[in-house]
Design a protein that fits this description.
292 residues, alpha/beta, Spore Coat Polysaccharide Biosynthesis Protein SpsA, Chain A, 10-stranded mixed β-sheet, 14 strands, 23% strand, globular, binds uridine 5'-triphosphate
Length: 292
């Protein structure tokens, strides 16, 4: 299966980041000097994706603008001989085609993905949640594409979490295939309590879906929170066709939460050769100052 399209839903309200998200889209909040959405789109680019669809809502125009050209700024940087910065602001937009569709009412992730049907046509596609960042040697979407190509089916990205945390995630149940990294999925359970969770394999927001998902999205009723849940549609798909789950390699950050955002900021700085020392010194100084 050749996958060239990705869907990135960004229509959510981002309530965990209020009041910032009253006016600024969560995906535009930066980690160091790049907005979260930059990392999600880079993952798509590095996985060989050629076209991205943003499912947006009102007030999210900055996301599309970020991947468009800004001639005034380009001219300004050119005149001042700031070639490096010029290259940086042009680069990502030149690597991928982006388009968008509006989700007029925020009726859930499943509802958002349903808006991608005319974009994907009959092709399988990747879904990347922009507020779940994964640092990995091989981009996590590329890892899932490999499994999807092997079986010609949908693949859900999963990661192991402490058993005590299962009630924060969708949890996958299934049978391991050889190699113990890939499972044939039986079902997904939304946020089960640790004592009833079938596994500790959580679904943080990376999927390869075949276009049969759209029939399922049409059939599912509203689920948890009165929203159309992607989990419910995937469960329905698993009842009709083979669906796989794959334990991806990489470090995942829930940058849609304050804790995950702080964690990612420190980690990204420590992984940056120019910022590593700065960050280490800041942390050391704080430890001394506050006698931690
Ligand atoms: P979240 O559950 O993180 O919701 O959505 P949210 O609104 O972004 O953030 P909080 O929880 O209120 O802080 C997961 C992903 O699904 C998208 C969001 O933009 C996010 O990328 N989403 C969610 C939609 O596009 N539409 C929806 O109706 C719901």
């Amino acid at each position: 299966m050749n996958i060239t399209k990705a869907v990135i839903p960004v229509a959510g309200k981002g309530t965990r980041f209020l009041p910032a998200t009253k006016e600024v889209s969560k995906e535009m909040i930066p980690i160091i000097n790049k907005p979260m959405i930059h990392y999600a789109v880079m993952e798509a680019v590095e996985s060989g994706i050629e076209e991205v669809l943003f499912v947006t809502s009102s007030g999210k125009e900055a996301i599309e603008n970020y991947f468009d050209r800004n001639f005034e700024l380009e001219h300004f940087l050119e005149e001042r001989g700031k070639e490096d910065l010029l290259k940086q602001i042009q680069e990502i937009g030149s690597k991928i085609e982006v388009c968008s569709v509006r989700q007029k009412e925020q009726l859930g992730l499943g509802h958002a993905i349903a808006h991608a049907e005319s974009f994907t046509g009959s092709e399988p596609f990747a879904v990347i949640l922009g507020d779940d960042l994964v640092l990995a040697k091989k981009p996590v979407t590329a890892q899932l594409m490999e499994i999807s190509s092997k079986f010609g089916k949908s693949v859900i990205g999963v990661m192991e979490v402490p058993k005590s945390d299962t009630d924060k995630y969708g949890i996958v149940d299934g049978t391991f295939l050889e190699g113990n990294k890939t499972l044939k999925m039986q079902k997904m359970v939304e946020k089960p309590k640790p004592n009833v969770a079938p596994t500790n394999l959580a679904t943080p927001g990376r999927y390869i879906l075949t276009n049969e998902i759209f029939d399922c999205l049409r059939e599912i009723p509203r689920g948890v929170g009165g929203e159309y849940q992607l989990t419910d549609a995937i469960n329905m798909l698993a009842g009709k066709d083979d669906v796989y789950a794959h334990i991806f390699e990489g470090d995942r950050f829930d940058t849609g939460s304050i804790n995950g955002y702080l964690n990612a900021t420190v980690e990204f700085a420590l992984r940056d050769p120019e910022l590593k020392e700065v960050m280490v010194n800041i942390i050391k100084e704080k430890i001394v100052r506050y006698s931690i």
